[in-house]
Amino acid sequence: MHPRNDKLVNLAKELRKNMTKEERRLWFAFLREYPVRFRRQEIIGNYIADFYCSSAKLIIELDGSQHYEKEHIQYDAERSRFFQSLGFRVLRFSNLDVMQNFEGVCEQIMEALR
User: From the CB of residue 19, how many other CB atoms can be counted at a distance below 10 Å?
Assistant: First the structure.
C-alpha cells in the first residue's frame, strides 16, 4: 500500500471523467485490456499519477505542452523523485509521442513490464 491524500479523491474522479484525448487513446487502445492491471488517476501521496500498475510498481505520466515550461519541469522532477522514493519506476511520454508514435510508446511500456 502507498500513502495517499484523501483530499484528492474528488479531483482524481474528475480527472478520470475528463481524460485528455491522449490519455483516452492510451487507456482504451492499450492499457485497459493489458494483461497486467493498470489504474487511472491513482492518488499516491499528494500527487495523482496518470496511470499506475501496482504489481509492476510502474507509473506512466503523459505530458502536455505546459509540462515543458520551467516551473512544470521542476514540479514534474519533484513528483518523479517522490514516486521513485516509494520504489516506483516512472515513464514519461509527451502527448505528441502518444499521437504520433503510439506503437513506440506501447513498446516502451511493454519493455518496462518485462
Answer: 17
CA dist 48 to 13, 44, 99, Å? 10, 6, 22
pLDDT single digits (tens) 26-74: 999 999 999 999 999 999 999 999 999 999 999 999 987 564 556 778 8
Q: Residue 71 in 3-state DSSP?
A: helix
Contact (CB, 8 A) for 16 and 41: yes
The Cα 12–Cα 107 span in angstroms is 27
C-beta of residue 8 within 8 angstroms of C-beta of residue 44: no
Radius of gyration of the chain (CA): 13
Read off the C-alpha cell for 42. 491513482
b/e for 76-110, b at 16 or more Cβ within 10 A?
beebbebbeeeebebbebbbebbeeebeebbeebe
Map residue 52 onto helix, strand or coil. strand
Please state, in angstroms and rounded to a whole number, the distance separating the CA atoms of residues 77 and 74. Answer: 5
pTM of the model: 0.89
